[in-house]
Amino acid sequence: MNEGLLVVISAPSGGGKGTILKELFAKDDNLVLSVSATTRSPRPGEEHGKQYYFLQKEEFEELISQGKMLEYAQYVGNYYGTPREPVEQWMAQGKDVVLEIEVQGGAQIKKLMPGCVSIFILPPSMEVLEKRLRDRGTEEDATVRKRLEKAREEIPHAKDYDYVVFNDRLEDAVEDLRAILRAEKRKYHRNETAVERVLDHAETVR
Amino acid sequence: MNEGLLVVISAPSGGGKGTILKELFAKDDNLVLSVSATTRSPRPGEEHGKQYYFLQKEEFEELISQGKMLEYAQYVGNYYGTPREPVEQWMAQGKDVVLEIEVQGGAQIKKLMPGCVSIFILPPSMEVLEKRLRDRGTEEDATVRKRLEKAREEIPHAKDYDYVVFNDRLEDAVEDLRAILRAEKRKYHRNETAVERVLDHAETVR
């Protein structure tokens, strides 16, 4: 069995990543969503190992010092990161593991794990993004403008990713992601052993 | 409009490339098959511009010296090659152009056109390949063995290609090819302008 893929997905604010991933997971039962670790306190309803692994600061720092965090960052006084062990276990079982990473984390991940497949999801245009944010109807004008400003800063980070998927029609975006995963599994470097196996067999039947 | 892809496809003898490509072309109307040029004489029923562009030796050599051949090779005293102009015209129109290339030509093409997408189609095992060759019922035992021997020499060339597709179930192989084309169109380097356009628009609505 081949090792699974490590798939890094980022999207600027309001890029619609959540909806796309939900559809993707519904269609692909070989996918696993990586659970992040954090030192912030659980909110009501959050469970350890589900939304996050909730760790003490000392535990988190020990994992860092032991090289057991694939990536991590600090954000308003708390650590957030990806524990290496569960990711590697899933991959060894042939599962494709999805990491949702902040846009700024893409370059770091690619350096740490050059074998990962990184995908940046972005809106087809700023107008569409603005319309989507406003149509939610839940956000004040100032919040919408702040999110647009943030997206504008984040979009140029697309250059650090292998692929870009435009979130225009939902179904197309989902099919793009599925095609990327399928194609990546066909890369030669992930199939060296399989190619050798074709020839090995040849020896036995000669 | 984005430029089309240049897709190089090779397969060892008896790899079933013909059937796969037929299915692929039936499903993807954005694909164009490149027509090769040759200095060999047309066989009965062959038309200039259809199976091949039939050229005089002097014409072919002039195209070479003018850099108008994407790649070429000599084979039993005749030239075979890919004229650059029609390929580039199709690509400029957004069409994906498929070049069928001899296994040995893969490395050359990749050097000449690093932007191409190269795919190696191979049988799932030598047993399957042998069975398929024998099931045709048209080939003598010696011919089958010669083809198997040739395939064995060709398969290691898979390492010069970006992707490998195993021709196990036909539908899977075709879907693999379609996924590869779709994914390649989502590569960041093919979408720089599209990403910039998202932000350009932002300026106008600010």
Automatic annotation (TrEMBL), chains A, B:
Transmembrane segments: none annotated. Gene3D superfamilies: Guanylate Kinase phosphate binding domain (3.30.63.10), P-loop containing nucleotide triphosphate hydrolases (3.40.50.300). It comes from Candidatus Acutalibacter pullistercoris. GO terms for molecular function: ATP binding; GMP kinase activity. It is an enzyme of class 2 (transferase). Keywords: ATP-binding, Cytoplasm, Kinase, Nucleotide-binding, Transferase. InterPro entries: GK/Ca_channel_bsu (IPR008145), Guanylate_kin-like_dom (IPR008144), Guanylate_kinase (IPR017665), Guanylate_kinase_CS (IPR020590), P-loop_NTPase (IPR027417). The keyword Chaperone does not apply. Belongs to the guanylate kinase family. PROSITE patterns: GUANYLATE_KINASE_1, GUANYLATE_KINASE_2. One of its GO terms (cellular component) is cytosol. ATP binds at A11, P12, S13, G14, G15, G16, K17, G18. This is Guanylate kinase. The keyword Kinase applies. The lineage of its organism: Bacteria, Bacillati, Bacillota, Clostridia, Eubacteriales. Residues 4-182 form the Guanylate kinase-like domain. PANTHER family: GUANYLATE KINASE (PTHR23117:SF13), GUANYLATE KINASE-RELATED (PTHR23117). Pfam families: Guanylate_kin.
